[in-house]
Amino acid sequence: MLTAIEESLAELEQWMPWAQEGPTLGGLQEVLRQGELDFQADGDWQYAIVDAESDEVMGAIGLHRTDDPERLEIGYWVRTSRTRRGVATLAARTLIGAAATGLHLTSQIVIRMDRANLASAAVARKLGFTLAAQEDREIAAKGHSGRGYVWTLDLRGNLE
Prior knowledge:
single chain, alpha+beta, Aminopeptidase
């Protein structure tokens, strides 16, 4: 995971607030420990995206609780050397399918992103998300424009 983040830092720092500084092993270990605690507490579900043949970490994906108990937010990133190959779309489709069948109280998945993040918008479109809103947002990463998109997917009958 550390190598994947280091390799991808130039792209990650454009969109991810957590990637504004280079990663450290200790910092990553703390993030993973907290992620495990959140997972056990049914708060967030984060996964590494791993190539089945090579065991190479290709990125990460997670579902996160929101203020609305029926709505989850999905987030993802893909290692630079693995972008533009459908990795994010496949991983998101898989995780959304698991949420639709395993988390019965969840009726909607949300993607919040900066409007300048065209690659993430393409994933949302491919998965059948609807652009539900635009919002002002904090500029928390180098590529942020200050405007964001909120994409939604209704899990009741809309999953492709």
